[in-house]
Structures are given as structure tokens and as C-alpha cells.
Design a protein that fits this description.
21% of the residues lie in helices and 47% in strands. By secondary structure, it is α+β, with helices and mostly antiparallel strands. Strands 2-1-7-6 form a four-stranded antiparallel sheet.
């Protein structure tokens, strides 16, 4: 899917992210999307705190199903991340 189409479908939408490793969550309105080794979703272009990195498959699933669940592992400890699009 081209970046122009991704931007058309996601800019201005609200995204919620829950990190199962440290229990933090973020909710922000998508203001900018960059394509660098996958996709990076920002609250606004200069944002360093509110950003989210997604793979191509995850961004396509997010657009199609409005949610993504990913299983991660750090030091043999497994946890889940949840991403929801409103």
C-alpha cells in the first residue's frame, strides 16, 4: 500500500497503544506518518514522545481490522502490545 493511501486513511484518526512490558499507554491523534524501514506514526512532525513504529503488515492490519496485537520478548519474558485505531 503506498504511503499516500496510508496517510489518507490514518491522518486525523485517534490511536491507542498499550505496552505490556512496562504497562504504559498512549492515546493521541495521528498528525504525521513517515516511512523509514516500516512506518512511524507521530502525534505531530516534531514529536519525540508520542510516536509508534509499525511494520508494513501491522499497518495494513490496523487499517483493515482497526486493531493489532503483537507478541514481544525481552530477556525470555513474553508480553503483548495492543494498538487500536478509533
Amino acid at each position: 500500500m503506498p504511503i499516500k493511501e496510508i496517510r489518507r486513511q490514518l491522518l486525523g484518526r485517534t490511536i491507542f497503544f498499550y505496552d505490556g512490558w512496562n504497562g504504559c499507554s498512549k492515546k493521541f491523534v495521528i498528525g504525521y506518518i513517515a516511512s523509514k524501514n516500516g512506518y512511524v506514526i507521530y502525534e505531530h512532525k516534531e514529536s519525540i514522545w508520542n510516536k509508534l513504529c509499525l511494520k508494513k503488515e501491522e499497518i495494513e492490519q490496523l487499517i483493515a481490522e482497526k486493531s493489532v496485537e503483537r507478541l514481544n520478548c525481552i530477556d525470555r519474558c513474553y508480553f503483548r502490545d495492543y494498538i487500536t485505531l478509533y
